[in-house]
Amino acid sequence: MNNPNTRTAAEATSAQVEAHPRAFEPVTLVITVLMSVLGALIGIVLITSLGVSPNTAVIGALVAMLIGRIPVGVLARMRSQHRQNLVQSAISGSTFAAANSLLTPIAVPFALGRTDLVWPMLGGAVIGLAVDSWVLYRVFDSKLLPATGSWPAGIAAAETIKAGDTGGRKAAILGVGAVIGVVGALFKLPTSAAGVGFLGNIWALAMFGIGLAVGQYAPDFGFDLGAERVPHGLMIGAGLVALVQALLLMRNRKGRGDGTAADAAPTASDDERTVQAPQLRRGLLEGMVLFLCGAVVVAIAGGVAGGLSLPALIGWVALAGVAAIVHQLIVGLAAMHSGWFPAFAVTLIFLIIGLVLHIPTVPLALMVGYTASTGPAFADLGYDFKAGWLLRRNAVPWQPFEIEGRRQQYLAQLVGFGVALVVVAIAWKSFFSDGRVPPVSEVYVATIKGGLEPGTMTTMLLWAIPGALVQFLGGPSRQMGVLLATGLLVATPDAGWMVLGALAVRQAYTMWRRRGLTDPEARKDSDEQSENDLSLVGAGLVAGSSLNDVGQLTKAL
Question: Residue 8: what pLDDT?
């Protein structure tokens, strides 16, 4: 697959410039708002009952496709892949914003018995959500978070939209994969993990699969890794090295492609990306400043400023701001490579650090809620931008259309975020009064009240060493340390076998297609076709699993 930036100047000049559909077109906006309400409701129902928040992007794409086929003139506009992309961006953003970025944070002070802090915490969560999405919008398609990265849920959404538009062989492969994904999920198999195995960087996913398998079977041998905080220690070490690697990528230095997801997508050199090193640096620095300002607002609104000395208050604001942006980056990197984001576990790490520093209960609870508001929306917007990037890649001239399309997606997600805020503001009291509080928030509060076991921090620091080493050896393009820790933290039953099995099938299929080929160009073309076929299968599995997750709504109700 060729990068769209390589199109010739003659092609760009001779082609008519296409205008990207706008997020605020009346028909698109009405459908976006309605789908966002649905997404927000799905998110808060499932996060409070089952403890999960599904990716509803595929649902949004399917509904938009169906609306486009209604024989009414104005609705026919929804046949546009790009309008469908706007709708799926909004509904998925609304789901994750309502469940993870807004409801989960405000449940922390509620579970602590401080209902007076729910509204201040909601204000802080809104700031965290807004900055979260703004930073991703600024740095997506940089060397740190490239559009050529895996972003599995984004591939699933894009392939679903394309299959609905074109049909044919690709639609058949995607459809078979989706059916397998739904059936497997019905039998409690994590088929989305297998789908991810067909889509991402092989080295990163191998470490993810190993982490999942070890996390699942270690208790059978008498090792409770979670209780000993081993995965958390690994994530601390890997996360610190990943942070340094991110800082190094901010340098304005030319170089060859980073090889991110080299086994699954075309690479791009620095000149071919839409976000260069100076823009990456500016975006992250802006995020850091905005997160610090948000922490100041939370401190004042939550009464933290009056209960701490000036040095302690400055330290709290600094820790909250750093925790927010580090949490955001680690969650985003893990989501890009694996399709999973360990938001709960990384927030728990900062909670433990707060306990070690003896931060008082209420300031610690507010810091945890503020940190938890970042990350999921960052990852979800990355998925949606990836879907849009895939759908827009044939536009000529490509870059102006891509940049404008990304801006319209961002605006559509802001609509979803606004709807999510209204839904949460209206619904939180009735949900919490009925005892429907997100389970992760209750775990945060229980940990705050229970304190630490002796030696916990020492154990985490010791395990941080191998985590840092693995991350350093893998480099920033593979994120092997972060993915190993993510697998250990997630430890979903049978997911490790799914990922490793998919990698084995992927390698075997590639070798089978290569048989008898000796010419390097022919082998390269064969490998590319293999990846295209397997990407469709993987996208179908992820899409089918997402449909099953949304189907859990009836169980929750």
Answer: 43
- Single out the residue of 390, 388, 392 nearest to residue 411, CA to CA: 388
Q: Is the pLDDT of residue 504 over 80?
A: yes
- Burial label for 13, CB within 10 Å (0-12, 13-18, 19+), is exposed
Q: What are 389-426's pLDDT values in tens digits?
A: 999 988 888 899 999 999 999 999 999 999 999 999 99
DSSP labels, 210-247: HHHHHHHHGGGGT--TTTTTHHHHHHHHHHHHHHHHHH
Which amino acid does the sequence have at 434?
D
CA 78, CA 85: separation in Å to the nearest integer?
A: 10
Would you state the pLDDT for residue 243? 84
Q: Side-chain half-sphere of 121: how many Cα atoms within 13 Å?
A: 31
Query: Which two three-digit tokens encode residue 184?
Result: 């497997």
Using CA of residue 54, residue 198, residue 81, residue 266, what is the dihedral sign? positive
Q: 478: part of which helix (H) or strand (E)?
A: none
Round to whole Å and give the CA distance between 523 and 511: 10
What's the 3-state SS for 113-166?
Answer: CCHHHHHHHHHHHHHHHHHHHHHHHHHCCCCCCCCCCCCHHHHHHHHHHHHHHH
Structure tokens at 250: 């901010």
pLDDT, tens digit, for every residue of 102-139?
999 999 999 999 999 999 999 999 999 999 999 999 99
Q: Whose CA is closest to 420, among 50, 133, 4?
A: 133
Type of residue numbered 66: L
Report the alpha-carbon distance of residue 495 to residue 211 in Å, rounded: 10
At residue 479, the 3 state secondary structure works out as coil
Chain centroid, CA 373 distance in Å = 13
5: pLDDT strictly greater than 70: no
Query: So what's the pLDDT on residue 221?
Result: 86
CB 541 within 8 A of CB 178: yes
d(CA 84, CA 158): 10
φ and ψ at residue 370, rounded to 5 degrees = -65, -45
> From the CB of residue 315, how many other CB atoms can be counted at a distance below 10 Å?
14
Sequence-separated (6 or more) residues with CB below 8 Å from residue 332: 136, 145, 341, 375, 378, 379, 382
Give the pTM. Answer: 0.85
Q: Are 205 and 486 in contact (CB under 8 A)?
A: no
Torsion angles phi and psi, residue 479, rounded to 5: 55, 45
Pick the closest to residue 440 from 215, 132, 126, 103 (CA basis).
103
Q: What gap in Å lies between CA 52 and CA 50, rounded to an integer?
A: 6
Percent of the chain at pLDDT exceeding 90: 43
